[in-house]
Amino acid sequence: MVDVRIMNFEVTVLGALDNPGKFAIKDERISIPEALALTGDFTEFGQRNEIIIVSEVEGLRKTARIDLRTADFFECEFYFLKQNDLVYVLPSEVGVKQSGFIPDVPGLLSLVTVILSTVILLTR
To answer: Where in the sequence is the domain holding 118, given as residue range(s)?
Structure first.
């Protein structure tokens, strides 16, 4: 009887997550939810309906989009990740838009309010 085990089983989980990175897996099998759990959780901008899986199958790179809000992803061929698979959680547009100096209209209004209040206090 021969027992063969993969010693360097790793998956990479990136995107809008609390602790993205490359993770070494002790077992030879890990599911998408388990891989996402290794990162902590989604950030407030992580889209649960836009998860991209990149896997190499028979020398060809395959991608799949997964929606965690439906039960269909349990039946997906990529549900159990393979060696060196990549899981990427897309950020929402709100998260992408808020990456600038002035994140949004409420932020701009707050800045204007502080400036106006300072001017009024200094002129009186």
So the answer is: 100-124
